[in-house]
Every structure is written in C-alpha cells, then in structure tokens.
C-alpha cells in the first residue's frame, strides 16, 4: 500500500517538475506586419540568440531602468569607427543608461575624427590593400579613410591638445578623457554636425570614461611620442602628462563600492564585446573583495553581447557564471544575466532603440563630478575593513631603511 | 618635360582612384530616437555585419522586389522550432518574396507541431538533460516540449496522414509536401491559431518546397518505418510511398531554367544558414550547365545569412564568389551578393520587417501549379542543347543486352 | 553541542566536495622537446579545446578500441577535397575504427577525383574568382582544379559507370556506394597512386557508407540527369537506378540495433563536422525507440569535432546532452562524450595518428556483407516490440478500398 | 589574319595564367602511420586551416629561424592557466624564437601560481558555479583552483614582492616584469618543478615583456591597492611604484627600429590570440612612421593564430592585409603572412614542436639587457627624422607661460 502511495507521490513530483520545465511562454509569435515596430519585433523573438536579445532588452527595461541601478558600459571592437557613437552610444548616454564607461583606446581615438569633422567612409573589405597603402587610404574592415587628411591630421590636432596646460600632470584616463571631452564638446558645437563624439557626450553628462590600456592606441602613442620628445629636448619639466593606471583601478572600484555599500543600490553592466574593457569593468568587485578585502557579493545584472565563445580561451567569451566564481557577479543573481552571441553592430542599435522606446530617461548620476567623494569613501571602507591594513603598512614602512 | 607630364598624369590617376575608394557614404548616422523605426534603424547601419544587413535589405527592396525576379529561400538550422515560421517566414511567403523553398527535414517536421496545435515552450539551454530525459521532456537548445504529448503525438498523427491514398506513389518531396501542406492547411483553419504552419502557407501560395535529405528527420524516419512495416507484413502493394530525390533535382532545376531562359527573368536566393538546403538550391545552375549542358551564367542575386565562416570547410560558409567558379552565381554579378555573418533568429525577422515595410506585395508566381509545364521545358532545353545526348542514349541502350 | 557537531560535519562535507572539484590532474605539463611525439604532445594538453582533444583521444584509445564497440564515422565539410581521405580517413578505416559511415554527397563526389587520378591543387582563397571562372578553374576555398579536365571529366567518367547493369535497380546509397567502390578500387589499383579513395577503402573493408541527401551533390545531379534523359528518350525501362532514402534509414538503424540488442555490444560515433551526416547517424536511436518502438537507451560514446556552436541554431552544434533528451545518446553515459570545437583539418589527422600509435588494429566487422542478416533482425525486433504494429497494419490495409 | 594571331596569343596567355593557378602542390598526402611524426603530420596538411598551420610552420622554419630576424610573441587568452607556459612558451623562448613579448596582465598573473608552486587543476566547464563560489573554488573555463589557497595566497605573496625596494620607482612593465622575473626565477629553482614560469624564463633569457593594460589584472589591482594604502596612510614617499605606459610604448618601438634601421635585419611576429597584446605589438611600426615620423615599411613576417574573424569588429580578427594599410605590415610582404583560424591550445604546441624539431636553437638576442642602447637609438632617429620636431618643441615651450 505504502509503496503505491510513494509511487503516486513520486509520479506527482515528476509531473510537477515536468510542468516547471514546460511553463515557459508557448512559442507562437504573431506575424511581422506593416504595424510591427522594433519593440514588438524583439518581444516576438522566442529562442536562440534572438531570445537572448529579448531577455537583454527586458532586463534593460525592467531592471536597468531603475534609478538605483548604476550602469557600466564597456566597449571593445571597432564601434566608433562604425558610427555607433552618434547612432547608439550617445543616445544611450543621453537617456541616462550609462553611468560609467570603459573602452579600448582605439574606440576613443577614432571618436576624435567625428569631433574633428574628418570623414570616414563606407567601403568594402575586399579591396587591394597594397593599392590602398600606395594611394594613402587606411582601412578598418569595410571602413575607409584618408591616411594623410584624416589619420595624420587627427594626430596633429591631438598633439596640439595634449600640450595644453590642463594635461600637464599625472592622472588617470578618467581625468584625461574629461579634459579631452571638454575640448571635443566645444569643437562639436562649432562643427554643427550634431552630437557625434562619445567623449563630448561623456563630458556633458558627467560620465567617467576609462581605458585600461592607455598606451595601446594612437592616443597613447602620441602621449608617448611627446614624452620622448620632452626627454630628448630636456623639456620634461614642461610636458608632465603621465597616465597612472592605478588611479583608474581605484576610481572605477570606488564607483561600484559607492553604489552598493553607500547608496544601497544595485550595479549592472552592459558589456559590448570582450577584451580588456570587459575585464577592467568586472574586476572592480574582485578589487573590493580580494584586494581591498571589503565584503561584497558581485555585480547584480550583467548583459554581455559578444561573438567570442567561452571555449576558445579569451576572457571575451567568459560567461557570467564563471565570473561568479571570482566574485565578479553575484552568484545568487545569475538568472539576471544574459549572454547574447550576436554581432554588436546589429544588436547594440536594437537594444538602444528598445530602451529609448520602452523607458523614461533616467536622471544622470554625474559620477565624474563626484570623483573626490567616491575616492574618500573607498579609502574609508578600505581602512575600516581590510584586516591586513596594519600588516601592509608595516611592510611599506620597512622600505624606509 | 614629358616626364613631368607623365608624373602629373600619374598623380591625377592616383588621386582619382583614391577618390573612388573614399566615395562611399560618409559614416555619420543620425541618433536613434523614439521616432526611429525598423527601416531607419537598418538604413543607419554603416559598417561591419550591420552594414551587410543593410546591404541585404536594400537588395531585397531594390532587386528582389521586381516582378521578374524569381526568389528561392533556403532554410537550415532550428528555425521552425524557434517560431520563425509564424513570425517571419510565412509573412515573407505571403508577401510574394518566396517562389520556391528548400529546407531541412527537421524544419518541416517541427512545422507539424504548429499545425497540430502541440505546444513548444521557451526554456533554457542550461538544464539537466539527464533529468529532462527522465521526466520526458525533449530539448532543442532553449526550446522545451513534451516527449510523449508533442513528439510522439506528432508522429502518431503524421503516420495517419502518410497512409492516405494520395501518398501511395513514387514522388519527390515537392509533391510530398504539397499533399502534406493541404492537410495542414485544413488543420490550421480548424485550430484557429492563425497562420502558423510554413507547409500550409506553401500550399496556399503554390510554393514548391524541397528537402534534399528526405530520409534525414523524423518525417523520413516515419516513412521508412512504414515501408519496413509494409515489407514485414507483405503489404508493399498497398503502402507505395517512395521519395525519389532525382525528381527533386530536376524539378528544382526546372524552376531556374524557366525563370532565366523562358521568361528572361532573373533569379535570386535568400540563404538562411547553410548545409544541404543551401547547396541543393545553388546546385540548380551547375545542374543546368554541367550536367544538362545548357549554356547559362548563374544566379543573379544572392543573400546569405550564416554564422559559418569559409575557412572551416563547410559549404555553409562558402561565399558567393567561390560559387561563381562553379557556375552557381553569375561572376559578373558578384557586387549584387551579400554575405552577412549574423544570427538568423535576429537577422531574418529584421529583413522580413524591412521588406514588408518598404515594398509592395509581389504577385505569387505559384510555381507548384506549373510543375508539369516547367518539367516539359527542362526536357526541351535539355534535348536541344546537350551535345552529349545521343552518346548518352547510346550508353543507356547498351543496357538492353 | 549538537549544533557544533552539525557545523563540523557540514564543513567536512564542504571540504570533501571542494576536494572533489580539485581532484583533477594538476596542470603542470612537461616541456615540448625534440623527443616529444604526437602521443606525448596530446597527452600534455591540459585545458580548453586542447583538453577536449586529449579527452577524445583517450576515449578512442580506451573505449573505441574495444572489439565490442561498433563505430560510426560521419563526415561533413570539405574533407576529401582537402586530402583527408588518403592521409587520415582511409588509415582509420584500415585500422578497424570505422564500422559504418555517413558522408555528404560532395565528399563522396570529390573522392572520385582521387580514384580517377584527376589532380586537385593547393591554392589560395584570396584569388580573383571572376578570373578563375573565365580561365576555367574551379575553387573550393584554397583548393583549385580544372573545370574541364577535372570536374567535367569526372562527370563523364561517372556517367559511364552509372549506366552499368549493376546500378539498374532501386537501392539505398549503401548499395550504390558499394558498387561504385568496387569500380573505384579497380581504378585505384591501376593508377598506382596508393590508397587514395575512401569509397574504394570502404569496399575493401566491407564498410557500409550512407549519404542522407542523395540528390544533393554532383553524383546526385548526374543520376537525376540520366533519369531525365531516360524519360525524355523513352528509355525508362533500361535506366532504372533510383535511390530510395527509406532503405538507408532502415539499414543504418539495423546496424545500431544489431550491435546493442543482438550482440550486446556498445556503439560509438565520431562526428566530424555536423550537418545532415551527423543527424542521420544519430537518428538511428530515435528510429529504434520512437518510430519502431523498440526499447533502447541511446549511443554509448560520442566524439564530436566541430566549429559550430549550439547557440547558433544548427544541428551541427547540438551537444551530446541535448541529444540525450531525444534518446540519441544514453543519458547515463554523458561523461563519455566529448565535444571539441576544433578545426577538423587539424584535429582529425591528430586523432588518427593518436589511434594508430596507441592501439592495435581492430578486426573489421564487415557490416556491409551482413546487410541482409541485419535487416532481418531489424524486422524481427520491430514485429516483436512495436505495440502499434497491428494498428498500423490496419491503417495500411484500409488503403485497399 | 592578325585577329587569329591575337586570339592565339590571348589563348596562350589564358592558359599560362590557368597553369599558374594550378601550379600548387598536388593534393595527395601520404597515409598517417605508426611512423608519422609531428613534422610529417603537419607537412601533410594540404588545405583549409590545416594548410595554414603548415604554412605558419614553414615560415617559422624558413624565415623566423634566421639569426637576423627579431621575433615578437603576443599572448592573449588563458594560456598560462592552461599550462602552455611550461609546455610550449618556455621551450620556444629557450629555443631563441622569442626576442620580445607582449601579454595580457592575466597571463602574467596566473604565471605566478606556477612559480609559487600553487596548484591549478584540470576540471570541467559544466559545473555549478554558485556551488563553486560557496565552496571557495575559482574557475577559468575548465580549470579549477582554490580561492583561498591559490588566488588569495598568490596575492599575499605578490604584495610582499611589490614592496621590495627595487620596485619603488616609476617604470614600464618591461622593467617591472624583469624585477618580478628575477624573484620568480629564484623561487622556481627552489621549488624544483622544472621551468614553469614564463616570467622567470624571460628573465633568464633577457627577453623584455610588456603588458599594455597594466591596471587590468590582479597584478595591476594589487599595485593599485598598495598605492591606495600608501595614500591613505601617508606613506606615498615610501611606496613609489608607478607604471608609466608611455615608457613601454617607446621601449617596444625601440626594439623594432633597432632591428630594422640599425641592424638592417627583419622583424616578425607570432600573434597568439588578438586583443590588446596584438595591437600593442603591431602599433610599433605606426609609432615609428606616424608619430615619430621615421620612414619605415612595416613588419616583415606575421603569423596570427586566432579564432576571431575580421567581420566581427574586433582587432583580434584584423588580418595582416588590413594592417598593411596602417603601415603595421610591409605591404610588399603580404605573401609572408599567415592567419590560421585555429584553437591556440592545439596550434601553439604543434608549432613549437615543429620549430624545435626542424630548426637549431637561435642565439638569444637578450634585448632586455640592451634597453638603454635601444632607447638612445630611438631618440637619435627621432630627432634626425621628425620634420615636426622643432614645431613640437615650440608647442611644449609655450607651456612655460
């Protein structure tokens, strides 16, 4: 008898579990028609990476849209050359969905062409590159531009900016881009092309921008070139710009600590591509927990749009769950993470359109303006929490001898 | 003197060529806003695969939309399970942009669930598959459905259809799907779920559908099962369904020959994914030129949406230019081909939305209804053109002895 | 007190679990040196896809090598054009590690060039394809060959074979390739190039070969062309070759059923690439369980080398665990499956070298020769086990009226 | 008459061109046998990415092996965690095939575990990450290690190293890694595990190592943590370590300039993965030409092993020909570049084995030891060649006011 009851109970449990598996929305989308708009189109995507795009858009609409969520945007890949600054990134910033940003130096360098009104053109990726080189045309996949009139001209203008007084000090890229953004903002206004520069938009909106590889890209190359010239000419006391990456590590970490510990809010990331910008954005939590030894649980929401797969060994493809084992992502929130294996030049515009159409603009957090406050809070928490502080101080003091 | 002139001329030529490289539209897209619709969003995509999506959409709008263009659609990958039938493929068919179709058997098998009103559900790809198997749940990536109530039930209903009289003969998949589509169309009407079955839509619109691997997929498995049963039970004289792939090879070829030679029109393909459906669609031209020896130049327009790259050895990733060396694609028209490395669950809905919003419905060519006429034309051209016909006849006649 | 004990116990359990996670071999490979051979090189691969390659090789050495394991090899992608027939596939067949095979028609078509002694050449994938077409050169990625002297000549010779008497009947590709293989074997001997044709090697070793898409590829095109000619010339009574895919479905299924049910052995697959050959090989188990309703558990071992990822929707990338929910793979044996995301032109030669160096040749199972016996066993099990048989017979009998 | 002659001549030319296309080695590899070694296996690879691997190996054997070729190795992706340091990278360094190196910070951080004798283990990528986090196990794809005993312990030991006197200054990563390498070399000797640390091997061989994103990775995090502590504790005068990326930009550029201009040699790169290490290595030529305005032509040889495709927008996938339009690669040498789309955990060991088996060890160039000499030469060439030097000096001098 009991056996039968047990069997029945077991069967009921099995059925319940089965029902759970089969409780997702039925796959039965409506037909695309003249009336279908972007929101409907995405809401209609049921499965595979289309389903991930929908999940990402819903996370943006339902979670990222909240005022207490601090959003980081990381950019890798040729996004600004492809025009995604004016079309998608700047609108997303203006909409209040970007509170801080990491980007490759290359993305910020090519942003200059837009601010300087130097044209890049649609072209083809199947051209004769030796001929391009002969003719003085430079190529980024299917984007073509003049080597002399765009690339070299950008460098010439950049150099004139880098020797301005406000740049003559040690700083992080956060401050560096702020000064640069102010100048680009002025140029942008003069050029009357509309809002075309990401760095100018960051300046206006008080959004801190970081590059984790400051020497990598033409901006870093020109900074290094000027340092070399200053050294060669004995002018080191005049040209004093030095990028200190440690400042950036701590300043980015301070953003997350403030959002979580001091403002009791949540943090979210939008990772466009992978690479060093992704890692730099995600290492803020390990910096808090592992290095500064402040108890914390990891970022709350994570959207990752990439073409890199985890099996190929690049960090670019590492999924949120792997990040959870490092303390990067809160392991209890893995359901609120999305990895979409999509081409970013298609997915990012769609996500931005979805956000703008389904949410109200968020109030800008203007975290750049609060840099010193955040830095103080970071030190405060560090000194309070790090059980090793005294030992470490002792280690440093030994250096006196 | 002359040297200088030559130099000047050379310099002018170099500049002219440079100008040509830099003559593409300037990359300066407008900002995404509340007013941005799907068409604007795509028109705004300047580079990388976003640029390819735009190019594909413009080809659809400007070339495929013409009444004299015969369009083939090939489907590989889990498209019908993901719901792309009702959302995108059927609307594209209804809009007159699909004149013939190739698909994997799996896509047509899973189309049955929709016609039979048996639900598939959104799920997750990170589930415990051993547990799913125990519970009787079947998975296609992130799509879940009941093994007994959906999979086995589909088979049971399919079998009852396969033993109907109209199926008891040798035929190609073109005819097979036509009979199947008629029944699915009736079921679809009864179920009142709207237009959900691709095969039903093909039936209504007179669109011939082909599967190049008729034994591969659960449809083919059930046909084979019935044949086995008939043999085992001595009922071979009653169950007479046999799929003859040669009929399909010639019937698909006849479509292209008619469009080009007899109607002096153009042919175009939309290749969604790669695999056997892509190859089967593209081999029509080599069948004309290489096997039937009828002079021809290759398909005129080619849009390929795939995630497969050419270097990995699959036909799925072979680009149109490689196809040109086989006679598949007209080598003089390579500029009117587009390969977009995009996820089809995102790209296909976008393309369909673009087409429906920017073009008028095309008149259905109803090529299924014209099957016999096309077959006769194929034979006619073959006998006229193939220099080897007499020799071949001689070879066959030797078989008498 | 009890609380403390519980805590201690809990902690111990946690530690035990942690130890389990950390019980894998330490990552500390020896240095590659002049003495390193292929086996050592692979044994030394600790992680990522290198680790998967090692796992696959160990599965081959430790499991596939057993005499009671029946091995299926599926081939998709341009393997024979790339020369992998003579270098890797034929040696693996000769070593007894291939008991049956599925392949795209294209792989078998290009195998003919080798048997016919018609040369293909190393070339480049960045050539001017329009120029190639003009010059009469055909391209498969970086492989180049003469359109007239190789492609057309292969067709001409193939046609002469197809009109031989042994081909004048309805058959599956299994029998078709057997007849073809016998002729290629003779040609191969005459040409004295060594063992270069996969089909000839299959013939010699009694290995059944299947193509699930018989009309897709130049072989299928020529069969169709001859059928068209026969029809056009009233010679249908002489040229009687018809490929019936249902025969192949049942013949391939019979192999698995025999190995598992009748010989109490195990079955294993080596899936090179994905596509229709992969699905056709794996659908044998669902054919047994779902269609023929014979209780069974799925294949035992599964090695899949592919570049397709599961998220992109192609069956090519579907992992073994997904297959387990369909009954394709035994869900209790998922630990003995390996998916390696590797380029097959590198991975396959490495695996074959590993097998040949670490295992003894297996006795050939010569399953082709046992075709009728296997077919009888399939019918026997079907009639015994299928609870629906009588119902189905009834359905077919209704066709009399 | 003339027309006929012309036609004949034209036909001859066409034939000649056709012959050229078909002049590549015939695809007819020998069978893999017990006697096949790694060199034979690779030499036998005719096409697709296998063919690229062969081409890369031949380039290494025939060009990179020359004493006048200066070789840079860039590392991105989880190479040291996967054990490729001891197995492949260190043997390649010892063989004299690495004259300078760029790497992500993560690769150099995980190199520490090996030097510190802290174990990482083979594991699985399909584990429950929330459980791992609970148990204190950290994951890198399929590599598992203890959070406390490995990750945190590495940090603790690293910190004690970072507060040593030799680190208390501004420096580039080149010098930073040199000091670190010396200490790791000592530890490695004590641990008696053999040569397991890439940084120790770099130290011994005088190989300069660069990381372009010094703040990105746990090494950079700990440097930043100590800087924060020093600031918070008023100990800035004691802890003075600052990484200046500009020093690295110029020091890496000096290597290329010396090799090409001063030693009239050639330069070559082995790019394993993409990302910032790839770009940083390749930007040396633009730094010479574009920023320092010294006429130069680009690197001579380029081998790139990556899974990133150019169309997805990451620099990781940008091919050498695109690099040629930037001056990175000599456009006249594009034939001596190879891009192989292969998994690096398989391809790198194969390439290293091939090199060690087919070439003699090269004399170490010990470029680290020559750092000051190279720096002086860079300044010398800069001052001689840059037409803008005086203008730039003037710009800097304006800062006085």
Give a short summary of the structure.
The first copy, chain A, is of the alpha/beta class.
Could you describe the 3D structure shown?
Four copies of one chain form a homotetramer. Chain A is of the alpha/beta class. Chain A is built from 17 helices and eleven strands. In chain A, helix 11 packs across helix 13. The longest helix of chain A is centred in the first third of the chain and has 20 residues. Chain A is globular. Chains in contact: A-B, A-C, A-D, B-C, B-D, C-D. At the A-D interface, helix 6, strand 4, helix 7, helix 10 and strand 8 of A face helix 6, strand 4, helix 7, helix 10 and strand 8 of D.
- The gyration radius over C-alpha positions of chain A equals 24 Å
Largest interface pair: A-D, 109 and 110 residues
Major sheet details of chain A:
6 strands, parallel
Helix share bin of chain A: 40-55%
Structural class of chain A: alpha/beta
Q: Tell me the fraction of residues in β-strands of chain A, as a range.
A: 5-15%
Indicate the low-confidence ranges of chain A by residue numbers.
none
Overall form of chain A: globular
Helical run tally of chain A: 17
Mean pLDDT of chain A: 94
- Physical arrangement of strands within the biggest beta sheet of chain A: 7-2-1-9-10-11
Terminal Cα span of chain A: 84 Å
Order of helices and strands of chain A: HHHEHEHEHEEHEHHEHEHEHHEHEHHH
Total strand segments of chain A: 11
Multimeric status of the protein? homotetramer
